[in-house]
């Protein structure tokens, strides 16, 4: 259900269950977690096979859960999303086609979300009397703002790529999201990792600024300024 290939500085992770729109059961979630944790490349590119990014949790699994199993399944999805968020490098989500429920939540855990013009997004759990429980209730309002997050989650409405761009759910709409992963992989990998660590830092602002200074100093010491005259600034 999950395929991985290394392509230079990019690890391509493919959700590969197109007949079910790449819906995720326990096995697929564990495979995705393993794929992310085993990657060593500067960039992980996460996308779906076929005409969908990811339909979220496999409803056949969800419908079979009791209370304890449901909590365990949610914890597994949260763990996978956290592994994506904490990856030591950049994770780029290439959303082509439908992202629904848990699929949106996995994209939210990525550092960069890029959509094709055919991408659509929806938090459809409310229509089934549920809600996404893979960390989306925290990440969605942080990324798009509380108002947009409540609108999406409480209505279950579907938004297209341009609407997702306007609200900040994605940062670009392009024909080839993989090209964005290659673009990110072309930068200095040390700077990439330090920048992500600083921007993901949830410590107090004073501590963030101290770590920011230290990271900047490390990068300056390691930098090659041979082409500095080609730039006006940083």
Word description of this protein:
Helix content is 47%, strand content 18%. It is an alpha/beta fold. The strands form two sheets. It has a six-stranded mixed sheet, sandwiched between helices. Strands 4-6-8-9 form a four-stranded mixed sheet. The chain is globular and about 60 Å long.
Tally of helical runs: 10
If you average the pLDDT, what whole number results? 91
- Rg, rounded, reads 18 Å
Helical content (DSSP H or I, runs of 4+): 40-55%
CATH homology group of the largest domain: 2-enoyl-CoA Hydratase, Chain A, domain 1
Principal-axes shape call: globular
Which range does the strand content fall in?
15-25%
CATH topology of the largest domain, which one? 2-enoyl-CoA Hydratase, Chain A, domain 1
What structural class do the secondary elements suggest? alpha/beta
Q: Taking strands numbered 1, 2, ... along the chain, how are they ordered across the largest sheet?
A: 1-2-3-5-7-10
Tally of extended strands? Answer: 10
How far from one another are the termini? 42 Å
Give the tally of structural domains: 2
Q: What is the makeup of the main sheet?
A: 6 strands, mixed
Low-confidence segments:
none
Order of helices and strands: EEHEEHHEEHEEHHEHEHHH
Instruction: Provide the CATH top-level class of the largest domain.
Output: Alpha Beta
What is the correct CATH architecture of the largest domain? Answer: Alpha-Beta Complex
Protein name: Enoyl-CoA hydratase/isomerase family protein
GO molecular function: catalytic activity
InterPro entries: ClpP/crotonase-like_dom_sf (IPR029045), Enoyl-CoA_hyd/isom_CS (IPR018376), Enoyl-CoA_hydra/iso (IPR001753)
Pfam family, one: ECH_1
